[in-house]
Amino acid sequence: MDALQRAFESIKDWLNVPLFKAGATPLTLWTLVSVVVLVILLLWLTKQLKNWIVLTLLANSRIDIGVRQATGSIVRYIVIAIGLVVIVQTVGIDLSAVTVLAGALGIGVGFGLQTITNNLVSGLIILFERPIKVGDRIEVENVTGNVVNISARATTVVTNDNIAIIIPNSEFISSKVTNWSYTSRDVRFNIPIGVSYREDPEVVRKVLLDVADEHPGVLKDPGPTSCFRNSETAL
């Protein structure tokens, strides 16, 4: 029993050896371990809080899923920021000693993270204003596909070739975006078709309309139409 107690005391003394100082406060290995454990616990708890807000608290409301996720993310970030300050002060780290250093680092990091910050702010705008949402058919720059995920930094679009393209959120704010399903998923496609001069135009028109009517994805009301333009037949 005495040997076990001496072992615990030896470990305690080893963990309490000062590594460096933050102002007048000595930082030990035990302090650093405590901070790491508490931060991991904070991140896990805030993740559970976000899931509770999105899946339980706001589940029966009429709020869109994207807005619920944005609300949960904002609450989580606020709790993390407050929790980090509480953790640092609880373990006895003097924040005033690192204020100047943090300010200098903040300026440098701010310049380096301008693009990331821009994408994060753009992500919040997208989540709240809803110019695009999951399931929309969009076209931005040279990318056309379906939106499958909107995160804080980037949006994932899957093309017709089943290729996932991750687009920074700032592109949707600063660039021209075509949303094929913004107001409705019922849209019209113009398909140019070349026809020989020797063909009867009415026969061509009838064939095109018959083919369109038999396609399950073509609406009956309004139905397909065919017109001639510049000696070409288009559906």
Notable traits:
SH3 type barrels; 3-stranded antiparallel sheet; 7 helices; elongated; 50% helix; 5-stranded antiparallel sheet; alpha+beta; 3 domains; 235 residues
What does this structure look like?
It is built from seven helices and ten strands. By secondary structure, the protein is α+β, with helices and mostly antiparallel strands. It folds into three domains: 2-112, Helix Hairpins, CATH 1.10.287; 131-179, SH3 type barrels (Roll), CATH 2.30.30.60; 192-234, no CATH class. α2 runs antiparallel to α3 (65-90). The radius of gyration is 30 Å and the shape is elongated. It starts with a helix and ends with a strand.
What is the element layout, followed by pairings?
Layout: H1 2-15, E1 18-22, E2 25-28, H2 29-57, H3 65-90, H4 99-112, H5 114-129, E3 137-140, E4 143-150, E5 154-158, E6 164-168, H6 170-174, E7 177-179, E8 192-193, H7 201-214, E9 227-229, E10 232-234
Antiparallel strand pairs: 1-2, 3-4, 3-7, 4-5, 5-6, 8-10, 9-10
Helix pairs in contact: 2-3
Short structural summary:
The protein has 235 residues and is of the alpha+beta class. The protein contains 7 helices and 10 strands.
Form type: elongated
Low-pLDDT parts are: none
Structural class: alpha+beta
The topology string of helices and strands comes to HEEHHHHEEEEHEEHEE
At CATH level 2, the architecture of the largest domain is Orthogonal Bundle
**Radius of gyration, CA atoms, in whole angstroms:** 30 Å
Name of the level-1 CATH class of the largest domain: Mainly Alpha
Query: Got a strand count?
Result: 10
- Mean pLDDT, rounded to whole units? 78
> Helical element count?
7
Beta-strand fraction estimate: 15-25%
Structurally, the number of domains stands at 3
Oligomerization category of the chains in this entry:
single chain
Distance between the termini: 90 Å
* Helix content class: 40-55%
Biggest sheet statistics = 5 strands, antiparallel
Major β-sheet strand ordering = 6-5-4-3-7
Q: What is CATH's topology name of the largest domain?
A: Helix Hairpins
